[in-house]
């Protein structure tokens, strides 16, 4: 069994805050998306990350459409956020997720 690693909201918010502070830094965006992807596999973390994380991922993917690391990590993060939650699926679509996936 995997350990339960649910983090506090303030800890999770730091990831999105870093992505917002450095929108033009590809490494920050790719790593932020990757962190969200990894942490979202925990359902509690996913709930806490979704509100701000879905939009942050969309912004990163729009900012770096040709960067495979940002795109792959962003898709993995959305997958992790959506897998257990239909509301998150709708929010991803509202954030432009379908268009970003198809670009």
From TrEMBL:
<dbReference type="InterPro" id="IPR016024">
    <property type="entry name" value="ARM-type_fold"/>
</dbReference>
<dbReference type="InterPro" id="IPR056597">
    <property type="entry name" value="ARM_LRRK2"/>
</dbReference>
<protein>
    <recommendedName>
        <fullName>LRRK2 ARM repeat domain-containing protein</fullName>
    </recommendedName>
</protein>
<dbReference type="Pfam" id="PF23744">
    <property type="entry name" value="ARM_LRRK2"/>
</dbReference>
<dbReference type="InterPro" id="IPR011989">
    <property type="entry name" value="ARM-like"/>
</dbReference>
<feature type="domain" description="LRRK2 ARM repeat">
    <location>
        <begin position="13"/>
        <end position="82"/>
    </location>
</feature>
<keyword id="KW-0677">Repeat</keyword>
